[in-house]
Every structure is written in structure tokens, then in C-alpha cells.
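[job 4471] stage=fold_predict status=RUNNING
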Amino acid sequence: MYVTLLRHSLDEWSDEPSREALLEHVLSRRFEMLVGPSLPDEGVYSALATEVGYDRALIKLSLASDIHTSPEHFTKPAEERRRLEQALVEVGLDLTDLARGRA
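[job 4471] inference complete, writing C-alpha cells
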């Protein structure tokens, strides 16, 4: 089900932002996902939408960085996220360090 949601979300992405804009989008989505819900009554659907939004942006940034991935690699989302984040580190985009620099 997650793979299907992610695939549909990617199909809805119509623009091709610059690499810098894409990186900012990834960092913003990552922050939202790590911080969690801002209101106590935000439920599982909100958390799911936040994760899909981050993974969609992560896929786009990875592909723009010549790192192969697709929604089908997200059968275990946490594992694919870690793999992509590490692959991005290897091409000089450490999302953790970049996020710290924004604070």
C-alpha cells in the first residue's frame, strides 16, 4: 500500500525544481517528519502523508543526484530512506549536516 501511495504522489509532481530548490524541499519535509505532529489530535493519516512527502522529495533528489531508486524500493521505507540518505552523503549531500546549518 505504501508503495502505491508513493507512486501516485510522484505521478502528481509536475514541476522540475532546481537542485537547490529540491534540496530545500527535502530538508523541509525531513524536518516535518522528524519533528512529528504539531497537534496532539493529528493522527496516523497525517503522519503517513508527512512520510510520503519526504520520501517523494528524497526520491526526486536522489534521482537528480544520479542515485537509482523508485517507489518499488520502499517496501521497507525506513531501510530505503537510510540507503538513500547514505548514498547522498557519498555524493556530498549530508542531510543531517545541512539541516544543522539551517538552524
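[job 4471] summary: The radius of gyration is 13 Å.
[job 4471] exit 0
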